[in-house]
């Protein structure tokens, strides 16, 4: 499990848009992260995390997963690669998380080619699924 400042070793994002506070780990094809919604979150409005915040949380989960794979392949001292969302599709958000709720997102790789990774993401609050989507992430070489 990776928390706090150590997450910055996995992703290029920095405050105020860091959208994961815990990375639980990864296998060769899956990764999982978490975020507790706070009122100071830049994507929080009227006590709820807006849709863009959920999508950014999913994107950063994908980036952290790729960051772990990068460290495994290139050594612990390797810097996180810059990544870009190439596409988000089949996105369904059933409700917005409230301040104080904890989201956990799991990403599963469905395809990889060169520097492009296609993943399916599921975001839960407890046992309730609140968002699903497919995300295509491009990483710089």
By secondary-structure content and strand pairing, the structural class works out as alpha+beta
Second-tier CATH architecture: Roll
Q: Which segments are poorly predicted (pLDDT under 50) over 5 or more consecutive residues?
A: none
| Helix segment tally | 1
Distance between the termini: 27 Å
Strand order of the largest sheet: 1-2-3-7-8-9-6
The main β sheet shows up as: 7 strands, antiparallel
User: What is the number of domains?
Assistant: 1
How much β-strand is present in the residues? 35-45%
What does this protein structure show overall?
With 141 residues, this protein is α+β, with helices and mostly antiparallel strands. It has a single domain (2-139), classed as Thiol Ester Dehydrase, Chain A (Roll), CATH 3.10.129.10. 17% of the residues lie in helices and 45% in strands. The strands form 2 sheets. The protein has a 7-stranded antiparallel sheet, with helices on one face. Strands 4-5 form a two-stranded antiparallel ribbon. A hairpin with a 3-residue loop joins β2 (22-26) and β3 (30-36). The radius of gyration is 14 Å and the shape is globular.
Secondary-structure blueprint of this entry?
Blueprint: E1 2-3, E2 22-26, E3 30-36, E4 44-45, E5 48-49, H1 51-74, E6 83-93, E7 102-113, E8 116-125, E9 128-139
Antiparallel strand pairs: 1-2, 2-3, 3-7, 4-5, 6-9, 7-8, 8-9
């Amino acid at each position: 499990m990776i928390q706090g400042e150590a997450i910055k070793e996995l992703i290029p994002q920095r405050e105020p848009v860091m959208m994961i506070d815990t990375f639980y780990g990864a296998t060769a094809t899956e990764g999982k992260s978490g975020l507790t919604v706070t009122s100071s979150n830049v994507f929080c409005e009227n006590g709820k995390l807006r849709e863009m915040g959920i999508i950014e949380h999913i994107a950063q989960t994908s980036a952290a997963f790729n960051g772990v794979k990068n460290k495994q392949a290139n050594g612990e001292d390797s810097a996180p690669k810059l990544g870009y969302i190439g596409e988000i599709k089949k996105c369904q958000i059933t409700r917005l998380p409230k301040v104080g709720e904890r989201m956990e997102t799991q990403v599963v790789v469905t395809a990889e080619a060169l520097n492009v990774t296609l993943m399916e993401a599921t975001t839960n609050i407890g046992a309730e699924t609140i968002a699903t989507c497919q995300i295509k992430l491009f990483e710089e070489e």
